[in-house]
Amino acid sequence: MANIIACYKWVLDEQDIKITAGSLALDTGRAKSKISEYDKNAIEEAVLQAEKCDAMVTSLTFGNSKAKQSIKDALSRGPAKAYWVNDAAADIADGFVTANVLTAAIKKIGEYDVILFGEGSADTYGQQVGPRVATLLGIPVITFVAEITITGNSVTATRKIGDCTEVVTAEFPVAITVLPEINKPRIPSLKQVLGAAKKPSTELSMADLGLATDDITPKNKVKSIKGFVMNRKNIMYKDGTPEEKVNALIASLTKEGAL
Amino acid sequence: MAGIWVYSEDNIVEQQLLTIGRSLADSLEEPLVAINIMEDNSLDLILRGADRVIVIEGNSVLPESYAKPIAEIAGKERPTTFLIGGTLRGKEVAAKIAAYLSVGLVNSALSIKVIDGNLETERIMYGGLAICTEILAPVSIVTIEPRTYDAAQGDPSRTGKTEKITVEVEEIVKVGNVCPIIKQGADITTAEKIICVGRGLAKQADMKLAQDLADKLGAEIGCTRSVAEDYHWLPNETYIGLSGQKVKPQLYISMGVSGQVQHTAGIRDSKIIVAIDTNENAPIFSAADYGIVGDLYDIVPLLTEKIVK
After folding, report:
1. How close A98 gets to chain B, by Cα (Å)?
2. B59: which of A82, A157, B288, B300 is 20 to 30 A away, CA to CA?
3. Which residues pair with B83 in a beta bridge?
4. How many Cα atoms are found within 13 Å in the side-chain-facing hemisphere of B80?
5. Closest chain B residue to A140 measured between Cα atoms?
6. Residue A248 counted as domain residue
7. Residue B1: pLDDT above 60?
8. Which residues on A lie below 8 Å from B127 (Cβ)?
9. For B257-305, what is each residue's pLDDT tens digit?
10. Disruptive mutation site among B66, B70, B72, B92 for chain A (greatest number of A CBs within 10 Å)
11. What ipTM score was computed for the predicted complex, to two decimals?
């Protein structure tokens, strides 16, 4: 039986983040968390593939103590068991740190044939953890994948890379990063949500993984994270007839030389 | 003299990297080194600003498989920063090199500058909501998306060194069929004018409204993610946003687009942004230069009619 690991990140929902006027600081006080959108595609694909080829799906995340809440959501999407590396280092982890932690956790889990990742996370969109983990494990990676077929011990994947598609084949074990278009993640049913509570989950600590301080220290220094403000003219035409509004717009665009 | 390094598997993108690479190399007084794989473009790279070109010749036709030999060379010389063209192939190579070297990687940097002797990058977070500024540690890798900078111009008086390295590349994946994606329209990433369609459009047949306006203006048509991915009214390569296409037209007109940050992140470099939507509180209006609050079914046909060709 093949073993598929789907990695995901528990992130703040960006729709709930407010920008403080003046300082442009991010106010995350009222932000709820969610499984990063692209990683939902990774979990869904793992489960869809397992249905076709009799595989066992394991979900894996690295997060702080609050990420515990994510396990039930992840398991209700279909994996048979969950692993969670619990450490506050996740709060400031960069791609280097996250890849080190996930790689150590995957080695600890031990059995893996296919490891799935989203192409990037919804918060930092660093777009690097999948290929980094593959490199650290010394296994092939296929990135930006729109379609996967597993046959025996090999994976055939269609990549979509800019102006071409490319069909790539690799033998187990292999890491894959998926594009959002690969599937439509399910909305778990009540039965699946209730069933998730009965599935096994394992909490790992940094001590279990045997990583050195350097391995969990981010490389670059974050100087600031500030709200992005678009400086635009914000001229609005909201009163008057459609004709008046269109005339006013055309006059402005003509003056700008934009037409 | 660790150097500023640039690499892209795409020649045009590498020419763009030479522009920012030359400027960083001059301010830090370090040499500019260009990596070149598969074919020898060293003369062109030198004329466009490289002080030194390392040509890597190998047996693979897959650019991604050169990550390891590039990492081995970079590991010996430890460049101050290594700029890699942010194509999708380039991002995979960058992540692998970063893993081999145990260094940081900033993907899709909007800018890279020397500030107080350090290199600083800016990049987007939270789907376009925020900008993260980072101070780079030595040997950091930075990817820069195509067209962020103009291509460096050649100067026939420039000189530089070229060295060739032959490598044996281990191919652990097999590449089968490579097919160009046939674009159904023109490339919106280079369009001068764009009409963007959002969910405010009720049905696919109404795409004609956008088409008529586009024909009148000589514009290309783009859309939001759900119009492409959920409704399939337009091909996936025409959706604009953080995970889709980033556009920089002279004029962008949206119709029925609410303007979630993931979308507006893809239009931020547009010169003039016009929004048409019924909801005056839609976030698109705060990202727009000009906005019409109104029903696109009234406004767009009038606009098409009144624009003088």
Report:
1. 11
2. A157
3. B6, B142
4. 22
5. B172
6. no
7. no
8. 14, 122, 125
9. 999 888 998 998 899 999 999 999 999 999 999 999 999 999 999 999 9
10. B92
11. 0.93
pLDDT in tens, A60-72: 999 999 999 999 9
Please give the tally of structural domains in chain A.
Answer: 1
Task: State the pTM of this model.
Answer: 0.88
Per-residue three-class SS string for A156-174: EEEEEECCEEEEEEEECCE
CB count in 10 Å sphere of residue B151:
16
Yes or no, beta carbons of B135 and A221 under 8 Å apart: yes
Cβ contact B251–A249 (<8 Å): no
Please name the member of B87, B104, B274 whose beta carbon is closest to the beta carbon of A94: B104
pLDDT at A142 over 80: yes
The domains found in chain B, sorted by start residue, are 4-166 (3.40.50.620), 188-306 (3.40.50.1220)
B156-214 pLDDT, tens digit each: 999 999 999 999 888 888 888 888 877 666 689 889 999 999 999 999 999 999 999 99
* Domain containing residue A167: CATH number: 3.40.50.620
Q: Residue A201's pLDDT is what?
A: 97
Contacts of B23 (CB under 8 A, 6+ apart): none
The 10s digit of each residue's pLDDT in B65-100 is 999 999 999 999 999 999 999 999 999 999 999 999
* Cα first-last separation, chain B: 57
Cβ–Cβ of B133/A181 closer than 8 Å? no
What confidence tier does A228 reach under pLDDT thresholds 50, 70, 90? confident
Omega within 30 of 0 (cis) for the link into A173? yes
- The alpha carbon of residue A1 is apart from the nearest alpha carbon of chain B, in Å, by 22
Measured in angstroms, the CA of A31 and the nearest CA of chain B are apart by 12
Please list every residue in chain A whose beta carbon sits closer than 8 Å to the beta carbon of residue B268: 228, 230
Residue environment code for A188-213, b if the CB has 16+ CB neighbours within 10 A, otherwise e: beeeeeeebeebebbebebeebebee
Please write the tens of the pLDDT for every residue from A152-198: 999 999 999 988 899 999 999 999 999 999 999 999 999 999 999 99
SS3 A208: helix
* A16 within some domain: yes
**Residues of chain A neighbouring B95 (CB-CB closer than 8 A):** 95, 127-132, 135
Q: Is position A240 within any domain?
A: no
Cβ-contact B215, B236 below 8 angstroms: no
Distance from CA of B40 to the nearest CA of A (A): 23
pLDDT at A57 > cutoff 80: yes
pLDDT band of A80, cuts 50, 70, 90: very high
Mutate to test the interface with A, among B93, B237, B252, B290 (most CBs of A within 10 A): B290
Residue with tokens 């059995």: A111
Q: Across the interface, which of B125, B178, B289 has its CB nearest the CB of A124?
A: B125
Residue A228 lies in a domain: no
Residue in chain A nearest B252 by alpha carbon: A258
Q: What is the three-class DSSP state of A92?
A: helix
Q: Give the mutation candidate from A148, A238, A249 for the B interface (greatest B CB count, under 10 A).
A: A249
The whole-number pLDDT of residue B184 equals: 62
Residue in A123, A127, A236 nearest the CB of B91? A127
